[in-house]
Amino acid sequence: MSESPLPAAHRLAVEALDALCAAGGPGAGDDELVSVLTLCEGLARRLDRLVVSAVAALSRRGVFAERGYPSTAAALGDLLGYERAEARRRVVAAEQVCPRVGLDGAELPPRLAATAAVFAEGRTTLRHVEVIAKILATPAAGRLTPRVWAGAEHDLADKATIYTPGELAGYGSRLVEMLDQDGPEPDDEPPAPVNELHLARHRDGSGGTLTGRFDDAALFDAIATVIDAKAAPLTGDDDRSTPQRQAEALAEVCGYVLDHADGVPDCGGHRPHLNVLVRLEDLEARARSAVLDFGGSLTPPELRMLACDAAVVPIVLGGAGQPLDVGRSTRTIPDGLRRAVAARDGGCAFPGCGRTPSWCQVHHILPWERGGETKRDNLVMVCRVHHRMVHHSGWVVRLRDGLPEFIPPKWIDPDQAPRRRPLPHPSAAT
């Protein structure tokens, strides 16, 4: 059996890159450095084509699904350290510019044949492929005849060699709009109402932004009536703006519901509540600061105000982020344990995941049926997706220095170096 050519190919690639680095070193002239840039971009595009081809082949074979991953993008994130958008970009390219296999096993051309050609020649980038795929997947593009659609794809592929991705996106939108002259067919039925609310946390932990739309008049009036009733000026000297009074009214109503409404559904196995995470040194210094479950930081005045509310559960953290004391609103031990694990892990502890505690489950590191105890040192918080992966894909979870870390299977990392999510608490060890 012949040996894999990969080691020799890797050695030659490293030697070539070393030579390129030397050519572009401190002594290189201006023209040489410009040439280094163009050579590196050409090599990067060739490597992108190789990656996309490998992703397509692995997806067709179902390799990642067999190893417990719900999607190819999720597997690429763990294997190569991609952000979700980067992984998805390569998956889209694999689906669009690589040959397909029919139900009878016959090879079919790529969905975006013209784009595949310029991508294979290195005349365009992954981002261009993503833009073309997105444009041609719009409802307007779907209304084009196959011949017109193919012509538009050929035109976009040609323009991708001279336009930036942003320019191509604008051009493609205008092109499809022009070709779709008839627009959508008239529909006697009224459009379905849109009722949606988007919550986005600020990256700096200072709070977040809510944006919403309610086409259902009854839903909107229910919300508007409650906010209007609570947003009235408190006194004649209340100089808060109307938007500020409405924002604070919404928060006050939500807080009241959490405190008093029995109909609020459970979140992750327990009733919704507000956890305030306080570092031990901050508590000793008269509670200077604290952190909330969703990552927001509290100022001293805000913390002191919350500390007056008996419905708040204070959680005191040690220097490495481990809970030292967990208050309980009831005497039920499972709820207290869950609070302790949530305080330590800050949500799903799997590296790269951002699921908050309310979307997570608690996993026994040593299974309960094998003698594992239901105690904090044998529990870790994971979302449903990563809970399944821990059970089925070869990842191993353990606690080190009282904090969770995950060991990937060898096919992800031959060295099986432990991985740990950055901890949410300011004083936590890295």
UniProtKB/TrEMBL annotation:
GO terms for molecular function: endonuclease activity; nucleic acid binding; zinc ion binding. Residues 410-430 are annotated as: Disordered. Gene3D superfamilies: 1.10.30.50. Residues 336-388 form the HNH nuclease domain. Keywords: Endonuclease, Hydrolase, Nuclease. InterPro entries: DUF222, HNH, HNH_nuc. Belongs to the Rv1128c/1148c/1588c/1702c/1945/3466 family. This is HNH endonuclease. The lineage of its organism: Bacteria, Bacillati, Actinomycetota, Actinomycetes, Pseudonocardiales.
